[in-house]
Design brief:
Order of helices and strands of chain B: EEHEEHHEHHEHEHEEEHEHEHHEEEEE
Helix content of chain A: 25-40%
Oligomer: heterodimer
Number of strands of chain A: 9
Number of helices of chain A: 9
Distance between the termini of chain B: 17 Å
Shape of chain A: globular
CATH topology of chain A: Peroxisomal Thiolase, Chain A, domain 1
Strand content of chain A: 15-25%
Radius of gyration of chain B: 20 Å
Structural class of chain B: alpha/beta
Number of domains of chain B: 1
Number of helices of chain B: 11
CATH class of chain A: Alpha Beta
Largest sheet of chain A: 9 strands, mixed
Structural class of chain A: alpha+beta
Strand content of chain B: 15-25%
Chain lengths: 264, 398
């Protein structure tokens, strides 16, 4: 078993922008409403860098930025794990389109934004952090893989880790071959155990078990609409202030057993 | 410190422009034969050199995994079939159970070449992609690990690390942590990246492609030669009787400086090397050989030279092997980790190919001739876009 304290949380998806808005929906105080995402302001980056950001990078960075802000900590000493199934398909679409043209005019900015670790790169520029960052993918179960990677870093390296898990809406024509139907990002700031904070503990991976689902049909639909939204059962327990055991879908048909010990 | 629980390298294998499997690669290194050739990767029309693996186009993936068929997964399968690696993984499954063996692989572009082709066959911008095009089993980064889990019969924790050119170095750190945290008992680590137009034309757009075979550390260096490759290592906790060859340490860091240019003084690189030495419990004097990232771009080699000479002075024996294999990007970390293992096990330190006139501004001692030399410890550097750095230490457990 490995464990970590949860310092802060942030969410960004249509109808749930920011943790306060998400909490209200997840507690059932407010119905979920499908509202388009507002423009996401990345205040942590200088204007010259900000200009180069794509919608996917903004989604990831915004959510990490909000979690950092909520923690009241500086980003300089914090490691990062960015988890995303697809990475930036807007960029892949532009590059693949450019490659169909006569001179194959790939844009240099598009190319350096095309790496899966582009959000992590901008994050370290924005925070001035020289701490490690990892960028991973585990397809539809990228959230549990990211959580396991982040919590194993907390446990083994004894460091603070910002986990940001995100996927944006794929552009046409890739939207026709991809199952993501809503943008979603979640960020959790995790660190070594500290009294007074909620505790997450990962037990192990279990097989022949069914992952925890959302009781509310609209939220269950969102959970299935984006790999990062597989975090919703955890977010719901946090919003309700519930100590609870959850099963998160994991790779190779397994589930990751997660215990949340809630502290207000 | 990792030396308290080092991981044995039970088996390893690699495929790249030098050949298929450790013997072929090592023979080429001994004979001084580069794997680079003029770009003949169709339909690219670029004045550059590439490290292409022969036979990938016709290499079959298992029939049951036909939906994963693409250049990147073919190269992965080719790698898994060399050096008895698959048999060693089967033995580890018997020891620990398929669910207790993890798999952590690096790639930068996975099977994006499939999407490039699919876009070419679209009739117009508002047309759908061809009906036989598959995304999640080819282009998606995780397609690589998903394919390899299925090909090897592994059901443990798995992921893809995609941090550009440090991807398949960082997998060692990820595997170490998953084992330490108790989520698996052993792990396959590795990386696969294959030639595609996105990287060829992408690096071309940044003016980083050399029109001659790349010349790391040379005064006249003019950019990289892109290569492709696959490499895999089986990591297990060290016990009596297991392989003496071990991962002794790793160090990770970020530059926090620029998306595609390294910090000019290599501050992130210094930190990654320092952390690797610290986790191995070694002083700089105890390192015998350094395999440089050494891409042959003006910026990388200059920053890396500063970082290396700051930590090691000018005495350490260094080489870049990019002139042999090309820069295999997401597979560079694993390729060079395994070259370090070959150097450790076969008492042979490879030269830096195509190095004629070392940059006079540089301080590090870079080998221009290969040496038959027994070494005890080797450090390998991998630095990626986004300022993502990883250094690994390999050696023997006595």
């Amino acid at each position: 078993m490995i464990s970590a304290s949860l310092y802060s949380v942030a969410v960004c998806t249509p109808g749930m922008v920011g943790w306060e808005a998400a909490k209200a929906v997840l507690r059932g105080d407010e119905p979920w409403a499908d509202q388009p995402l507002p423009p996401l302001k990345i205040e942590m980056l200088a204007a010259n860098e900000r200009r180069r950001l794509t919608p996917t990078i903004k989604l990831a960075l915004y959510t990490a930025q909000e979690a950092l802000r909520a923690s009241g900590l500086e980003g300089e000493d914090i490691s990062a794990v960015f988890a995303s199934s697809n990475g930036d398909l807007d960029v892949a679409d532009r590059i693949c389109s450019a490659l169909t043209e006569e001179a194959r005019p790939v844009s240099p900015t598009q190319f350096h934004n095309s790496v899966h670790n582009a959000p992590a790169g901008y994050w370290s520029i924005a925070t001035g952090s020289q701490e490690p960052s990892s960028s991973i993918s585990a397809g539809d179960v990228s959230f549990s893989a990211g959580l396991l990677e982040a919590m194993s870093q907390v446990e083994v390296e004894q460091e603070m880790v910002m986990l940001a898990c995100y996927d944006s809406l794929p552009p046409f024509p890739l939207s026709e071959v991809e199952s993501i139907t809503t943008p979603f990002a979640v960020a959790l700031l995790l660190g070594p155990l500290q009294k007074g904070l909620s505790k997450l503990a990962l037990q192990n991976r279990e097989y022949e078990q069914v992952a925890t689902t959302m009781a509310c049909p609209a939220l269950e639909q969102i959970r299935l609409a984006n790999p990062a939204a597989r975090s919703l059962p955890l977010l719901e327990s946090l919003a309700m202030g519930r100590t609870q055991s959850l099963l998160l879908p994991s790779v190779n048909g397994g589930c990751l057993a997660l215990d949340l010990d809630y502290v207000d | 410190m990792i030396t308290k629980s080092p991981l044995s390298l039970t088996a390893y294998t690699l495929v790249n422009a030098l050949g298929q499997g450790c013997e072929a690669v090592f023979t080429a290194l001994q004979q001084g034969r580069s794997g680079l050739r003029r770009c003949d990767f169709e339909p690219a029309e670029l004045d550059t050199w590439i490290g292409r693996v022969d036979g990938v186009e016709d290499y079959p993936v298992p029939k049951a995994l036909a939906e994963y068929d693409c250049r990147n997964n073919r190269l992965a399968e080719m790698g898994l079939n060399q050096d008895g690696f698959r048999q060693q993984v089967e033995a580890s499954i018997k020891r620990y159970g398929a669910h207790r063996v993890g798999l952590f692989l690096g790639t930068s572009t996975s099977g994006i070449a499939e999407t490039e082709v699919a876009y070419r066959y679209r009739l117009s911008d508002d047309a759908s992609l061809p009906s036989d095009y598959r995304f999640s089993t080819t282009h998606n980064p995780y397609a690589l690990s998903d394919f390899c889990c299925r090909s090897l019969g592994l059901t443990g924790p798995a992921t893809v690390v995609s941090t550009a050119c440090s991807s398949s170095a960082k997998v060692f750190a990820a595997a170490y942590r998953h084992i330490q945290a108790g989520f698996c008992d052993a792990a396959v680590v590795g990386g696969v990246d294959s030639l595609c137009l996105s990287t060829l034309y992408g690096f071309n757009s940044l003016d980083l492609l050399s029109s001659e075979p790349c010349r790391p550390w040379d005064q006249q260096r003019a950019g990289i030669s892109i290569g492709e490759g696959a490499g895999f290592v089986l990591l297990e906790p060290h016990t009596e009787g297991s392989s003496e060859l071990a991962l002794l340490g790793y160090g990770e860091s970020s530059d926090g400086y620029h998306m595609s240019t390294p910090h000019p003084q290599g501050r992130g690189a210094v930190l990654a090397m320092q952390r690797a030495l610290q986790s191995a419990g070694l002083s700089p004097q105890q390192v015998d050989y350094l395999n440089l990232h050494g891409t042959a771009t003006a910026a990388n080699d200059s920053a890396e030279d500063m970082a290396v000479s700051m930590l090691f002075g000018s005495e350490l024996m260094c080489s870049s092997t990019k002139g042999w294999t090309g820069h295999t990007l997401g597979a560079a970390g694993i390729t060079e980790a395994i070259i370090c293992c070959l150097a450790l096990e076969r008492d042979f330190v490879p030269a830096t190919l195509n190095l004629e006139q070392p940059d006079p501004a540089f301080n590090t001692q870079v080998l221009r001739e290969s040496k038959n030399r027994t070494i005890q410890t080797a450090l390998s550097n991998s630095f990626g876009f986004g300022g993502n750095n990883c250094s690994l230490v390999f050696g023997r457990i006595s």
